[in-house]
Specification:
- The protein is an all-alpha fold.
- The chain has a single domain, classed as UDP-galactose 4-epimerase, domain 1 (Alpha-Beta Complex), CATH 3.90.25.
- It is 46% helix and 0% strand.
- The chain is flat, with a radius of gyration of 16 Å.
Length: 98
């Protein structure tokens, strides 16, 4: 994801144009918070169990959407980005911080 952000920052588009034209940016693929945590433990060879729960089991004041997957079509096409999977970016992130 960092490489994509660098492309956007270094683009010829003005910052104002980029900020108002694009609303989100994330990696490819879908996951849940529990799958994300499981992947971290797996990559770091930590023996923890993660028990997934439903949104109903974790009440919050905010109404949660059934599907919160974000579209990257506009930003990917505009900047000709090759967006990596969340798995790949997670590995890179963990390598940087641990």
């Amino acid at each position: 994801m960092l490489s994509g952000i660098k492309v956007i920052i270094n683009s010829k588009d003005s910052p104002d144009k980029v900020i108002y034209k694009y609303e989100n940016f994330n990696n490819l693929g879908k996951t849940s918070w529990s799958e994300f945590a499981k992947e971290i433990f797996k990559l770091e060879k930590l023996n923890y169990k993660v028990a997934p729960i439903s949104s109903e089991q974790y009440p919050t004041p905010a109404i949660r959407p059934k599907n919160s997957t974000l579209s990257k079509k506009k930003i990917k096409n505009h900047f000709k980005l090759q967006i990596p999977s969340w798995h790949q970016s997670l590995k890179e992130c963990l390598n940087e911080i641990i």
